[in-house]
Input
Amino acid sequence: MNQDVTVSSRTLHEVQHGAAVDARSLRKAFGKFATGVTVVTCQGQDGAPHGATVNAFTAVSMDPPLAQITLIRGNKASEYLADRPFAINIMAEDQLATCLNFAGKPAREPIRWRCEGAIPVLEGNAATIECRPWRVYDGGDHLIVLGEVVALEVNDEAPLLFISGKFHHAGSLHGGAPWEASGDSIAHGWFEGSTSFRAF
Output
């Protein structure tokens, strides 16, 4: 037990002092954080719908309603999203082919779009969050894009998950809800984490 603590402490010490972090190990560590999968969509200058598969999505704020995605710097998606509205399509379990299509592996079946307004969205999502541009920040080799939520749609489909570089289905409920309030409660339905650090 003490040995594990020592190793962890040394690792943190090395990072704090600017020691090189192995990229593969860092990616592996990041990958242990389970996420959903999104396809971010918008209109190109030609008016055609475009999309990119993104798993770096974060809920940011309820008031104002803000959502964040993180994109590799220099790719086409980051250029499209600089100044135009976009949709965060949260993928359902049965949309794996759609995810892969927007990650570079063309789907065999046509992609189902809904292009009724300025923001094209995909059909069959677990949820869809439409945004207008809010801020773009420097994120190293990525761009951090914040959007203000202007419309949304939530469906009953289970979301597709992504863990350690692989796609997963949602499993069974683990121990029930850690609260007794309604799941629709703003304070309890969205797990915000602790409000302070606690000593052991």
About this structure: Residues 47 and 196 are 47 Å apart (CA to CA). The chain has five helices and twelve strands. The first helix runs from residue 2 to 16. Residues 1-9 have pLDDT under 50 and may be disordered.
